[in-house]
Amino acid sequence: GVSVTVKGTNKGAQTDINGQFTVDAEIGDVLVISYLGYTTQEVKLSSPAQLTISLAEDSKQLSEVVVTALGIKRERRSLGYSVTEVKGEELTTAREVSVVNGLVGKVAGLNVNSMSGGPGASTNIQIRGVSSISQTSQPLYVINGIPFESQPGGIGSQLNPNRPQNNGGGQYDNSSDNGDAIANINPDDIETISVLKGAAAAALYGSRAKAGVILITTKSAKSNSVEFNSNYVAETIIDPTHWQYQYGQGANNKASVSQQEAFQSGQSSYGGLLDGSNVIQFDGVSRPYVAQKGNLGKFYRTGGTLTNTVAFNKLFDGGSVRLSASDMHNTAVVPKSGINRQTFDLNGTFNIGKHFIVNARANYILEQGKNRPFVGDGAGNPNFNAWFLPSSVDINTLKSASNGSTANGQEFGYSANTYATNPWFAAENFINNSKRTRLLSNVSLRYNFDDGTFIQTRVGRDSYNDRFTNVVPTGTAYRPDGSMSEESTNVQDLSADILIGRPIKVNSDLTITPNVGASYRRTTVESIINAGDHFAVPFIYNLPNATQNRTVTYYPGDSETQAVYGTLEINYKSFLYLTGTGRSDWFSTLATPGKDNKLSSFYPAVSGAFVFSELWKPSWLSNGKLRAGYAGVGQATRPYLTSLNYNLNGTLNGSPLGSIGNSSVPNSELIASFASEFEIGAELGFFNNRLTFDMAWYNKKSRDEIVEAPASASSGYSAAVLNIGKLQNKGFELLVNGTPIKTANFTWNVSLNGSVNNSKVLSLATGTGQLLVATSRSGVGFTQQVVGLPANQVMAYDYAYDASGNVVVDPNTGLAVRGELKPYGSAYAKWIGGISNTLNYKNFSLNFLIDGKWGGKIFSTTDFYGYLFGLHEATTVNRLGNLGTTDKPATAQAYYGNLANNVSKLFVQDASFVKFRAITFGYTFPANLFNGAVKSATISFVGRNLFYIMKKTDNIDPESSYSAFAQGIESGGLPTTRTYG
Q1: What's the N-to-C CA distance of the chain in angstroms?
Q2: Which among 101, 115, 110, 141 is positioned nearest to 966, based on CA atoms?
Q3: What is the per-residue pLDDT for 487?
Q4: Beta-strand pair 510-535/483-501
Q5: Are 874 and 246 in contact (CB under 8 A)?
Q6: φ and ψ at 208, to 5 degrees?
Q7: What is the pTM of this model?
Q8: Which of helix, strand or coil describes residue 333?
Q9: Which of 105, 496, 798, 803 lies 20 to 30 Å (CA to CA) from residue 314?
Q10: CA angle 149, 218, 53 (to 5 degrees)
Q11: Is the distance from CB of 108 to CB of 368 less than 8 angstroms?
Q12: What kind of fold does domain 88-238+303-380+430-869+901-980 have according to CATH?
């Protein structure tokens, strides 16, 4: 709504959808009324009568104030770089458990990928393409001026390679995604999110800004009020599979004729034609041999998320306080799985005298995850085992009277492969719990001198503890005696900064504003994993009861960064702006004992803005600005890569054993990577800003990329840490906002954004010109960096061909031979876009969002197993005929199984899609309906992730991903879900 404040005080209010407001003011007070795109008005109160105030449209929309680096507020017109701001209310209607998923389709150049680990799972965000060859491309999050750590968290080989691992999966992978920290933030507490996309925008954050910056500003009190928001959405799965239902369980084109044969067949659907005859199944019961469709729908339940938030706002002489409390209760679609989260947010501002301002904030988070779903092909992953049941087996026949268990608590198995765990047993008995307690606190002190000089200092602390408990229960077929692990991770992240600045008015035309500052950050991480197996007393799950293979793994991680920085802003006649910044960082992670390393890096930036509409303004032009900027940003590395370090790993006679902690050859010459970016852009407004354009072109090059390249086995290490890579990203971004219709009762607003990014790996000093990034659990699909190609190539094996181009077959088997490992395209979309429409008619509002991505590739591990198990529709081709050579005939099972393991290009798919992402239909009740007791009340019906308008993938969701570190590889995650409520 429109902002209404009492001039010179903290009193204020916002109008409702009808433009009505109530404010506590006295005769003689001056009301300041402002709204983006309209001229600010000041009205002096002369009587207590009701006021009617109209705002005129302001053609100078560029005067909007936005939050920039270090929390500095600046007029948009003065910025020489691209910044996109998203209001908090856009994140709270058709919401998701993770707030950053609400940014999908709303910011040009922002690529948001949710992991496949269920509600609250990690989110991979890229701003302007891949920012690193081998490290994460996650942006820096800054909350209320304090940097906020938000790396993906999980148990498993590729979920987060920067933390100790314990997946306990045996032959298969029991990985899970336990979410990232940004998912913990309550969207009801967010005022705005500003996305700093370019290096010039983010350079003041130095070594942490290479991937861009997302600034989050939380709410403060604007009026004396109580807010309440209640939101419930139901969640159901979308089954993407199109399996074959012509042939059933069995082997070699025959159905099983005994219980033992059915048990040996396990997950295989290479049996006979489904003819309806009675066939003995795994449990000895004879059932009709018919297609069993809809198994996923039978297994997954309807989930739901209920969120309630209450906030108390209080204004008083000299300050304001806002206190909010939120409770979120989620039941996931996987049985016995869900998340509970409670958050408390306190924000107080105190004006001490005329000059001194104190702001204090604290945010407490308690999040408990119950049985977070596994991803991958692990025995404990019910998703994997539910997806690949034979086409003639009803999943409910596996349920038994005890949800997949026998009467004595053992797994009710259906396959001789003990790793093919009964999905009901896995969901009911495996334990994968998490608990996070987190306290974010910061205090800001600011003193404003009469001449405009200010001194500001801030101290912030991010303290959290993560606890994970993972149990393979007694009676599991592949590990009958069970096992468990417990992990505790403590993180203390302390940051402090000081900033001094002063605007200097040289003359009536020229203003210069210098700022200087310094910052300090210290991070302490401590992780301990205790693990063991063989429960002496069955079904009692605690570590003292795990009597064999007891291990203790200890992982410390301390780092420190110090920095100094400065800015200089020049404003000439409010139409020509020039800004320069510089920052030097010193890193402890690059230090080597006894060696004089280069510990510092300098990050410069210069940008300019020319508001040409102040000099030339035809009637059809509302405003116009050209901008350009150049900057350098960087990225350091995690601790202990420059020298040998030691930790605890394993035990001997009950005592911990010390060991070398490095898995990579230390590099005492390591330096921070550096990225330089040049950006130009334009902002145009037409027809009183009813049509606006924001365009940007950028060219970003990274050098000295820090890479853990494979090392010779004789070295005793798996990798060597080197500065060997160069990477380039070039692209174009466009944001168009329009108001096609605007009458007294009806308004239609449209927002369209799109971007194209071209990445290229310029060099890799690995000897091969390639670098492995991630591996599919199938072992035949990969993502790699390849010199001369776009980043993160999806790699797979082709057929082998002879000199004439014919497919080579093995003369001994008649089956195709594996050929070269080839690149098939980048894992990341080249084009990204979204369009949002908002229609308001009187008290009714309708908003819907459509977004899409084009040009990315994905390796489908689901299709790999579809071939292996005979579920894929392609495996029905010539199923009963000769699939080998004339003299070496092969069964379908042998033929398609060989293709799965040797010709994996068959599983590379085009990940392009267009999605109907979200819809909201709301009604705002008239304020007079509540006789003043309630100022505003709105009810909305929402839907999210409703359906794909177009998608190129088959059997999988094009947005699915194994982990943030394995983009472009899909493997065993949850099916896509839609929400509505």
Answers
A1: 25
A2: 115
A3: 92
A4: antiparallel
A5: no
A6: -105, 5
A7: 0.88
A8: coil
A9: 496
A10: 155
A11: no
A12: Maltoporin; Chain A (2.40.170)
868 conformational bin, left if phi > 0, alpha if psi -120 to 50, beta if neither: alpha
Whose tokens are 């004729």? That residue is 257
Class of domain 1-58: mainly beta
Decide which of 298 and 592 is more confident.
Answer: 298
- Measured CA to CA, the distance from residue 890 to residue 881 in angstroms comes to 9
**Domain regions of the chain by residue span:** 1-58, 88-238+303-380+430-869+901-980
Q: In DSSP terms, which residues pair with 809 in a beta bridge?
A: 816
pLDDT at 118: 66
Name the amino acid, one letter, at 517: G
* β partners of residue 660: 646
pLDDT in tens, 891-947: 899 999 999 999 999 999 999 999 999 999 999 888 777 776 777 788 999 999 999
pLDDT reported for residue 844: 93
Q: What is the distance between the alpha carbons of residues 813 and 885, in angstroms, rounded to a whole number?
A: 8
DSSP track, 555-624? EEEEEEEEEEEEEEEEEETTTEEEEEEEEEEEESTT-BTTB----EEEEEEEEEEE-GGGT---TTEEEE
Distance CA 226, CA 219 (A): 13
The type of residue at 279 is V
Token pair for residue 19?
């433009």
- Classify the C-alpha dihedral 231-234-235-239 as positive or negative: negative
> Residue 931 and residue 686: Cα distance in Å, rounded?
42
* Burial grade of 915 (CB within 10 A; 0-12, 13-18, 19 or more): buried
Q: Map residue 99 onto helix, strand or coil.
A: helix
The confidence band for 569, taking pLDDT boundaries of 50, 70 and 90, is very high
Amino acid letter for position 809: V
Judging by DSSP bridges, how do beta strands 3-6 and 30-34 pair with one another?
A: antiparallel
Neighbours of 814 (CB within 10 A): 19
Calpha distance 704→711 (Å, rounded): 19
- Rg, Å, the chain Cα set: 30
* Tokens found for residue 772: 């492995």
32, 42 contact by CB (below 8 A):
yes
* Helical (H) or strand (E) element with 837: strand 831-841
In this structure, what is the dihedral angle of CA atoms 88, 93, 98, 104, given to the nearest 10 degrees? -80
For residue 747, CA distances in Å to 38, 474, 735, 740, 847 come to 16, 62, 20, 8, 12
Question: What tokens does 649 get?
Answer: 């790993």
Counting runs of H as helices and runs of E as strands, what totals does the chain give? 7, 51
- Record the tokens describing residue 461, joined without a space: 């602390």
Looking at the chain, how many residues does it have?
A: 981
Amino acid at 84: T
**DSSP line for 189-202:** GEEEEEEE-SHHHH
Position with higher pLDDT, 606 vs 452: 606
Distance, in Å, from the CA atom of 445 to the CA atom of 455, rounded to the nearest integer, reads: 8
- Distance between CA 909 and CA 958 in Å, rounded? 9
